[in-house]
Amino acid sequence: MARCCAALGACLFEYDTPRIVLIRSRKVGLMNRGVQLLILAYVIGWVFVWEKGYQETDSVVSSVTTKAKGVAVTNTSALGFRVWDVADYVIPAQEENSIFIMTNLIITTNQTQGLCPEMPDRTTVCESDASCTAGSAGTHSNGVQTGRCVHFNKTLKTCEVAAWCPVEDDSEVPRPAFLKAAENFTILVKNNIWYPKFNFSKRNILPNITTAHLKSCTYDAATDPFCPIFRLGKMVESAGHSFQDMAMEGGILGIHIRWACNLDRAAALCLPRYSFRRLDTRDPGHNVSPGYNFRFAKYYRDPMGTERRVLTKAYGIRLDVIVFGKAGKFNIIPTMINVGSGLALLGVATVLCDIIVLYCMKKKLYYREKKYKYVEDYEQGLGDQLDQ
After folding, report:
1. Which of 7, 52, 267, 378 is packed most tightly, with the most Cβ within 10 A?
2. Per-residue pLDDT tens over the stretch 32-53
3. CATH architecture of 14-54+331-387
4. What does DSSP say about strands 307-330 and 251-262: parallel, antiparallel, or unpaired?
5. pLDDT (tens digit per residue) in 136-149
6. Does residue 228 have a cis peptide bond before it, meaning omega lies within 30 degrees of 0?
7. How far apart are CA 53 and CA 326, in angstroms?
8. Which CATH topology does 59-118+167-330 take?
9. DSSP character for 65?
10. Could you tell me how many helices (H) and strands (E) the chain has, helices first?
């Protein structure tokens, strides 16, 4: 109890003040200067030079539009000779910050509302009407079961459904891709940026790019890194994938546009940097539901007035344009804050040296004696002298 009271009294009634002690030691002096140099290197090299701590920063505000170009020719028994242009393979015509290019498809023509056999699987194959439930419609069904078991072909029976007939057969993806010529399609990306804090705006079609050059150039990281027209196959290749493999089942490709602008320099030096990455990462050991696809239909009426449709399951590459970056410009406030932080960090050298000198060196007791001086209360000391 007495020790607790003594400790509490020491905490309440003692005050310590710094004392400057000059230690003449090469070892301690070199350690102190070394730590100070490391701190200065961090503040000057990293904070001010690399991170530009003297600048105020702002994030980019961006808008993107895209336009595809290119034609492909196919000649199949189902569709015959056909030329595919932008209106056929860009679906939908406009999207926000992205564009979809159809590269493969499964097409089902002349569908009408009626009764027909369902596609065979473990839930639809039957031997008699007892195996089919009227009114049943599974998650993956093409229609609603009628309760009848009918011939799908000469050797197989499936449950009959009320649906758009004939039902779609998407069991096999066309190989190679139907529009394998899409590798040579080009995409024009128009990107406008704005830094509101600095009222600075720019676009990726740079002032030195003329109309004639824009019609003939194609992006190449080595020879033409600022052309905003990209070849589809080259982008997939730059992302580390095979275009023909990706075209069969589709996928998602990111076009990254990075704007890193130092507005203390000329505005002409604020330039876009492009990179490409496949976003639907595929695991070779787990390839369930790969790629990217969706369905759409075109409706019409035949001369007899019957409503018909052409159903298309479209596989393709969706290009997502991702714009990021920041701009910086000199401002006195962040400069003073970082200067003050750097000066405060220099105090770390003193603290570190004190710990080593007072607790780690062989002569720590000697240095501790020189570092600390114990002084009794003046009034108490004077009273003791008078009593004597």
Report:
1. 52
2. 888 889 989 999 999 999 989 9
3. Orthogonal Bundle (1.10)
4. parallel
5. 888 888 999 999 99
6. no
7. 14
8. atp-gated p2x4 ion channel fold (2.60.490)
9. E
10. 9, 14
